[in-house]
Specification:
With about 450 residues, this protein is of the alpha/beta class. It has 12 helices and 16 strands. The chain starts with a strand and ends with a strand.
Length: about 450
């Protein structure tokens, strides 16, 4: 038996073990009795963990840490001033090496590659790969993540994190969100019979608040985006809530158990694009999904199930963050001022994991201003019948710039990640005046 490490390059990661405050963990084999009624049956077996899971490891490499919770990333990395996320490490069984990839079906078909064999499922994953017309590229597709149960890619992360929160007997699960993550988390928590709490700002659109309330989530309004993390940290440390998203500064990625779910985007792409891919273009803030996709392809390559070069990962952002670091004008732990209507990828911070995903795959980061995203949103809707959230349209706008800069070639096979539909866009009601301060 070998260990399957999910390092893409030669970098390092940061970990801090989470303990649910003063709340005692539920006994192994039982569901937390404080979980609210409804949803999955309480006091049944916890969601089954993958027996091949052996621990977690910094994205920078190093020792394998015990199976546990590391919301601060690798402890050594954070202590050294380089906060770095962790990723799961699995035992690699000989019979799995080079095995054919599953085809079709939802995320459950990839359970052997994930930290849980079961979770509170609503049929997430298995989203269509839709081909778009393109005269500038060899082939162009969009991954329809807006077709997940709550309408965004976050549905690949939430169920695995909820499964972990149930297993450790947390008071509930909590996140800071501008919309998609909060709705997804509240949905899957309700499915599991677990309490949920979402920390928001006053700019949260009313339809999102209504959805959160309908799912039964507690909604707490903070003064600004960064203050959400302070409120969340108090709940984690003193009330026993399990964190889905980051709450520390400098930040790392979201719950490592949940981020594993984003690898399934790569798994599905590999199963459908057996002739190879040259690039995957991803709307990016703190980089959970772009890292997950990069790690997913690396996992398949290590297992002999992807026999092509890793596709370049391209991070699209609304103002310079990763792109500034790549130009050596900043370091990843800096603050990055800016404002945007691309609300789901706004924010003044970036993460080590997003930088790694780009660098380790030979990709790049590109700024797409709101006006270019506007044009792409309209073009996709009117030419292809696909109405995307503004930030999800930005990767389409990036294509001519990437071609002009030599990051793409006219023969390339490229996938765009369509993270969410325009109906969920927080700024759709008043796009002319709404801006999210970073």
């Amino acid at each position: 038996m070998e260990l399957n490490f999910v390092c893409i390059g030669q970098h390092s990661m940061a970990v801090r073990e989470w303990r649910p405050g003063s709340t005692p963990s539920a006994p192994q084999g039982t569901r937390d009795t404080k979980a609210k009624s409804g949803g999955d049956v309480l006091m049944s077996n916890v969601y089954r963990q993958n027996p091949d899971l052996v621990g977690f490891q910094s994205l920078a490499g190093g020792a394998v840490l015990p199976v546990g919770d590391y919301p601060g990333g690798c402890p050594e990395g954070r202590a050294a001033g380089r906060p770095t996320s962790v990723a799961a490490v699995y035992a690699k069984q000989k019979q799995d090496v080079g095995a054919p990839l599953p085809s079709g079906g939802d995320m459950s078909g990839w359970a052997a590659y994930l930290p849980y064999l079961e979770w509170p499922s609503l049929g997430e994953g298995g989203t269509p790969l839709i081909e778009l017309e393109s005269t500038d590229l060899g082939r162009l597709w969009i991954k329809a993540e807006w077709m997940n149960p709550t309408g965004s890619h976050k549905d690949r992360m939430s169920p695995l994190a909820v499964a972990r929160a149930v297993e450790v007997g947390a008071s509930g699960i909590i996140c800071a969100s501008s919309g998609n993550a909060g709705i997804s988390m509240a949905c899957y928590a309700a499915k599991a019979g677990l309490a949920s709490r979402v920390i928001v700002t006053a700019s949260l659109p009313k339809p999102v608040r209504r959805a959160l309330a309908t799912y039964g989530a507690d909604v707490v309004v903070a003064e600004n985006s960064l203050d959400r993390w302070r409120v969340m940290e108090e709940a984690v440390k003193h009330e026993g809530w399990f964190p889905l998203t980051n709450y520390l500064l400098p930040p790392v990625g979201s719950c490592a158990w949940g981020v594993e779910g984003y690898k399934t985007v790569a798994f599905e792409l590999a199963a459908e694009c057996r002739e190879g891919l040259d690039a995957v273009i991803v709307p990016t803030a703190r980089g959970d999904i772009i890292w997950g996709i990069a790690a997913g392809f690396a996992t398949l390559a290590q297992r002999g199930q992807w026999n092509h070069p890793l596709p370049k990962l391209v991070a699209v952002e609304p103002f310079p963050r990763i792109s500034k670091v790549l130009r050596h004008e900043a370091v990843i732990t800096d603050q990055f001022p800016g404002s945007t209507r691309q609300a789901s990828i706004a924010g003044t911070t970036a993460t080590d994991q997003s930088l790694r995903a780009v660098v380790d795959t030979g990709g790049t980061a590109l700024v797409i201003a709101d006006e270019l995203a506007d044009a792409a949103q309209h073009d996709l809707a009117q030419r292809s019948g696909i109405y995307l959230e503004l930030c999800a349209a930005a990767p389409y706008a990036a294509i001519p710039h990437l071609l002009a800069q030599g990051h793409l070639a006219g023969t390339d096979r490229v996938v765009l990640i369509g993270t969410s539909a325009g109906y969920r866009d927080p700024v759709a009601v008043d796009a002319a005046t709404f801006r999210v301060p970073a």
